[in-house]
Each structure stands twice: as C-alpha cells, then as structure tokens.
Amino acid sequence: MGEEGSDKWDSDSLTRASGMLNSLQYSSFIVAFVTARKGLQYIKPLTVKLQTVARDIALAHQEIAEVTTCIQHLRSNAEATFFQWFGEAERIATAAGFDVSMPRQCQRQTLRDNHPANNSESYFRASIAIPFLDHLLSELNSRFQHSKLAADVLSLVPETLLQNTVAGFNAIPEGLESLATLWDTDLPDHGSLEAEYNRWISKWRSVQDEAAAEGKEAHLPATAAAALGKCDEQMYPNISTILRQLCTLPVTTSEVERSISRLKTIKTYLRSSTAEDRLNGLALMRIHYDRDVNVSNVVDRFAAKFRTRMMLQATRMLNQ
Prior knowledge:
mainly alpha; HAT C-terminal dimerisation domain-containing protein
C-alpha cells in the first residue's frame, strides 16, 4: 500500500483493500471462489431465462429438472468433480504466490471445520464443495417444491401426455384433479373432465400412430400455448380452459416485480393523488415503452369519446 499513488486513497479504502488482499491469500477463499463459480455456472442460464417475459411453464419445468439433474450428478460424483475444481484453485494460488494447504487440525474444535483428511483436496472437498452442492440441491428443491404438481398439470401437453399414459382408460393425475377443483367455477363441466381427458389422450395417440404408419415423426405440441392452439374448445371445453389458465400463469414473480418497480417511478410522494385510471394508463405506457403508439388513433378515440373536444379531430384533419 505504500506504492506510488497510494496517497490518493483515503484510510478507509486502504483498509478495505488491504483486507481484500489478505483474503485472497487464504486457501479457503480461493477454493470457495472456484467452487462457487463452477457450481453457479450450471444455474446462471436458468436464472436469466426464468426472468424473461412470457416464459412457458412446460419448458420452464423441463429446464429446472435438467439443471437439478446436473447438480445431482455433480454431487454423486463429488470426488471426480472436485478433482478438476481443486486443480484450478491450485493454479490460481500458484499465480498468487502461495500453495493451497489445509488449516491446522485440532483434536477438539468447535469454531471451524475440522474434517479428518489426509490432504488438502480431501479436506476442502468435505468442508466446501460437498456442503455447497448440497445447499444448491436443497434450494432448488425448496424453491420448486411443487414439481410433482407441475408434472401432473403439464400432463395435458401432448408431448408429455403420451409418455405418462397408456392406451385405454387413464385416471386423471392427482395434481390435475386438484387444479381442476381449484378452478371449478371456471370449468364449463368439471364432471366430464375424466372422459375429456381420455379422449384427449386418444386424439394425440392417433396422431402419433398415423405418423408412425407413414414413417414420419409426429410433431406433438410441446408447450401449453402450442397445445391450446391445437385444442378444439367445443370438443374439449375443460381442457381448453385449463390450458388457457396455464398459459397465463407466470413461472416466476419477475414480471410482477418489474411492474411494481415501474410503479414506484410514477407514483411518488409528490404525485400521490393520481386517479386510478390515469395511474393505470401511465403505468402501462411505462411498462410497455417499446410498443409503437399511433398518436392519430389516440386523438380520434379521445375526440370521439368526448364530444366537447371534437375540435381536436377537426384540427388534425386540417393539418393533414
């Protein structure tokens, strides 16, 4: 810290920088850094994708299951996995001018990890890598704990439907029945859902069989939106209603949180008495700022709604 230019920094910044430099020279810090970076690489694409707009719940469920399976594989093969991670940690430590070493072992220790190990790799695998992977799995299972319910509900999507059913009679999955009970007032005829469900299976099994007879691959809808587009509302009124509801269910709360964030920029302490209609309009304009608005159409509708303002329409026509 005594190098040229250090006098430009205040004492607090120098203290923080010195502490950071000392932390970088700890073996546990380097190993934890590499472990976190390697482990979170599996989750980062999922977290980014789940925050996008109009995510399909069927695809989201599939992506979550794939990531969870990958993390479980890493945990099951922790020894081979951490061998590569530890090698990278050693290279970073060598570049920083020190060797990765495990801390001193104590016979009786209560304030730090005291895992029995013969070498540094075994110690850090037991104290950092395995707990980290276990934590990732625990959080994924906790955050998406309704995966069984989601799987049952998504059984209406034809691509999944034929994988989980057999030819002949099929009982309604428990999760789908629970959801139908919840939406009972929205369904046209809840009592006919079982028959409708089996006719829905028969329909797509026939499509698959016809494609197989012609030597072609059956292109079955893989999302709730695609299934809704192929669903005849008169033949399958209950399934059509459920699929429509599924299409409107958000995968995460990201879109709702974005709306709340936009609302904070509109309704402030200095502008807190805005009427509801005006507030809704301003919020929609702020949220959907990327949409093109035809100003002429807005003026025409405004003038037609309020006859006392017809002069607006006349003025616009004269300007043209």
